[in-house]
Amino acid sequence: MLRTDSVSMRFGGLTAVADLNIAIEKNEIIGLIGPNGAGKTTAFNMITGVYTPTEGKVFFKSHDVTGMKAHRITHKGIARTFQNIRLFKDMNVLENVLVACHLRMDVGVFASTLHLPGYLKKERESKDFAMSLLESVGLADEAAESAISLPYGKQRRLEIVRALATKPELLLLDEPAAGMNPQESLELMDFIVRIRDQYDLTILLIEHHMQVVMGVCKRMYVLDYGVTIAHGTPDEIQKDPKVIEAYLGVE
Amino acid sequence: MNKKNTIRAVVALTVGVAIIAIGDAFLGPFAVRILNLSAIYIILALSLNLLNGFTGLFSLGHAGFMAVGAYVSALLTMTPAQKSMNFFLTPIVPWLDTVQLPFIVALIIAGLCAAFVGLLIGAPALRLRDDYLAIATLGFAEIIRVLITNAQSLTNGAQGLKAIPKYSTTWVVWGAAAIAALFLVMLLRSSYGRTIKAVRDDEIAAEAMGVNVFRVKVTSFVISSFWAGIGGALLGHMITTIDPKMFNLILTFNILLIVVLGGNGSITGSVLGAIIVTVLMEALRFLDMPMNLVFIKTQGLPGLRMVIFSILLMIVVLYRQRGLMGTKEFSWDMLSAKALLAALKPKKRGERARKGGR
Questions:
Q1: What residues have CB less than 8 Å from B45, skipping those under 6 apart?
Q2: How many Å apart are CA B133 and CA B55, to the nearest integer?
Q3: Res. B22: pLDDT tops 80
């Protein structure tokens, strides 16, 4: 599904990510972990087109997507959420999701301004789809509320729903459990598995919450200072001396 | 919209049309001119608000696009006789000499020309952000002005154009303003309009949701330029003389003032702001005249009107940081007693900081 071929990202003299090789199969849930500043979000930004890798290539469904613009990549079927929540703050919950629906609507500026019949039909379909998404995550009652007035946990869920509205095949979640209490994190784990099954997704997630990562991910990659120091199943990772060193330090 | 509000809207519309009709029929020429100027400023404020308020682009190039619209429409509607009267220094270019189009056609071509110039300027300038974009658009507007000043055989240069046909009647300008407002409301309520607002709220998130941010910005810029061109053309056909000096930064600033005063990101705010500013600019004119305040007699202080105007503006900005309407639109619920009380009550500190800090 997704393969990165020795991608590296350098900012001047700083190598944020070096020689990253990730391979993800369809319907897997893969974790990307590492201490702060390890380059996890940079890796996300390279995959989603925010940054163009200085070296290496990114392949999505065996198509080269290296250096493609971010919105083109979303078109191709990769959607993401953000570490620091980025909702559209002057819009309500439903509108936030509808913005993401726009790319599958394929309507131009004049068709939508003039409210042509073709546009109205697509708009109705989008609204139904957005509402069904909101319903499936329990946000339907808040559809008309301002997005940023939602409690934190719901904002996170809304971000995921918004990403789902682009109808992705690969979903990248950047610290979905950040700031959540243990109970909420457990719910989130269930939620991630559920949307994977329901929408036939492949998921790559960055997470600090070990409980979450170990619980839902089949395999994971560990980054430290931009270098991949380990790769394997949760059990293997927990025993890996390099990972223990990176997280706990050694005498 | 429920039935009660539909009735209210129809009544309000009827009253609005009636006021314009009565104004047009019974007011003196000077008052009618202010009435019509309001409508033109509504068009200009709406088009700038699309950029500043809805797309989040800080542009200062509006006067340039107005100039393009005004010149194109004027040159396309003047009779050959009027043209030869104007171009006495250097004759007009031959291909424009005999062209004379109906007003509506010329007006639309004027808008399209301004939109085309908007595309030419927008494509490179919109790669910039924030203040840099403002400086760049300001620069481009000046370039347009300098080009017009120097293209003697095309625009009559610094002499400007006189005796432009006076097509901007009350019904024309108010009709155009109504179409502009309707167009923007429909655009912003549509799916495309949501992507425009998404770009304003968070470019990175919008791009990640599959919105072609650059394309949306250019589209918005071109639409805004189109309406600026229409507004400029109508202005030319109202005052019947135009010259390059008219379309300087001060004009852009006046429109920006209306947008900020009315509320960045509010269509009804821009409409209200345009009317209030245009009327006040004239209503406060008595301040420039000699005054007799019982104890103090003044000889007339030219410019005092602008001082008072600035103070009024400061008061609005201090107490309602996001303009009269904020990003909200007018709704009938706003006029309920409860809503009026809430508007008068000072906002909580945190709330104000959050809202002010965007």
A1: B255, B258, B259, B262, B270, B271, B273, B274
A2: 13
A3: yes
What chain B holds in terms of domains, given with CATH numbers, is: 3-286+300-356 (1.10.3470)
> How far is A100 from chain B, CA to nearest CA, in Å?
5
Q: If we measure between CA atoms, which residue out of B45, B30, B96, B47 comes closest to residue B238?
A: B30
The tens digit of pLDDT for each residue in A85-121 reads: 999 998 999 999 999 999 998 888 888 888 898 899 9
CB contact under 8 A, A123 and B211: no
Task: Check whether B348 has a pLDDT greater than 70.
Answer: no
Pairing, β A29-33 against β A219-224: parallel
Name the residue facing B209 among A50, A69, A74 (closest C-beta).
A74
ipTM of the complex: 0.90
CA distance B265 to chain A (A): 10
Range B224-234 average pLDDT:
97
User: Residue A113 and residue B192: Cβ atoms within 8 Å?
Assistant: yes
Question: Cβ distance B302 to B285 under 8 Å?
Answer: no
Helix (H) or strand (E) holding A192, with range, is helix A182-199
B243-268 in b/e burial notation, b at 16+ Cβ within 10 A?
bbebbebebbebbbbbbbbbbbbbbb
- Pairwise CB contact (< 8 Å): B197 & A91: yes
Kindly state whether A247 is in contact with chain B, defined as any CB-CB distance less than 8 angstroms: no
With beta carbons under 8 A apart, name residues in chain A contacting B358.
89
Nearest to A107 among B192, B210, B327 (CB): B192
Contact present, B224 and B50 (Cβ < 8 Å): yes
Residues found in chain B: 358
Contact: A90, B197; criterion CB under 8 Å: yes
Query: B212: nearest CA in chain A?
Result: A71
User: Residue B9: which residues within 8 A CB-CB, separation 6 or more?
Assistant: B1
The token pair that represents A2 in the structure block: 């997704």
Q: How many CB atoms lie within 10 A of CB B195?
A: 29
CA distances A184 to A4, A32, B216, Å, are 32, 20, 37
Using alpha carbons, list the distances in angstroms from residue A215 to A36, A128, A192, A219, B31.
21, 33, 11, 11, 75
Which of the four pLDDT bands, split at 50, 70 and 90, describes residue B352?
Answer: very low
Residue B142: phi and psi, rounded to 5, are -65, -40
CA distances from B105 to B40, B100, B108, B233, B352 (A): 18, 10, 5, 12, 48
Burial of A96 (0-12, 13-18, 19+ CB in 10 A): buried
Give the largest CA-CA distance in chain B.
68
| Residue B184 to chain A, least CA–CA distance (Å) | 8
| A88 touches B: beta carbon within 8 Å | yes
Domains located in chain A, CATH noted: 1-77+168-251 (3.40.50.300), 86-165 (no CATH)
